[in-house]
Description:
single chain, 255 residues, alpha/beta, Rossmann fold, 2 domains, four-stranded antiparallel β-sheet, 8 helices, 10 strands, globular
Amino acid sequence: MAPQSHSIGLDISDVSHHFDLSGAALPVLEGVDLKVEPGEFVALLGPSGCGKSTLLRLIAGLEAPVSGEILADGKAVTAPDPSRILVFQDPTLFPWLTVRKNVAAGLEARGVLARQRHRIGHALSLVGLEPFADAYPHQLSGGMAQRASLARALVHDPALLLLDEPLGKLDSLTRLTLQDELVALWRREGFTALLVTHDVEEALLLASRVIVFSDRPARIKAEFTVGKAYPRHRDDSDLVHLRREILAALGLTLS
């Protein structure tokens, strides 16, 4: 587990949620109970469309659950807060702004740019993008654009980083590199991390705990603790065994 100097815990109690579609309720989450310790890295796995990303949006405060309660650092989540930052699968950078100005945009929106401008260079340094600070998004590779997106999140010095498949659309080599760098960032900065992924191997390489959800409406089916030191190796026999167990929990069996 990462240092707990700058992290918050999370308590999700009996959370259910549905969407209103043409006057009918579409259940998405059902009775989710989850406790995340400060400084923990937790991965969420489950079938596509089961509600994992919705849960991240609720934790971020972008929506309110239909029922149940979400506490961050013991306080009810009722709105977005810079201590809880959500990073999406697509970088969604402003194409007309340089990398530096993209990273600064959130600080400017919060009205704190003048006194926190120093954080821009720090965030770019954390993701290795200092040489590209004045580049525009169309000049970046997919991996570099996702680094910029991470920098835009890290500039707020979040205590809880919510990651919605941030590496899902990258090529395999770039993805492997950023997996290692994400773990290094988490261990160095000490934030709490919650990662939605469809990649079981990725979950095992990055997370200290893996939560498996059912089909929609999502309920927690299983939980696995990954008690391996970092850096981890994908051919580690314990991880290979855990991978089989997790795939079985997801309803998949390897021949």
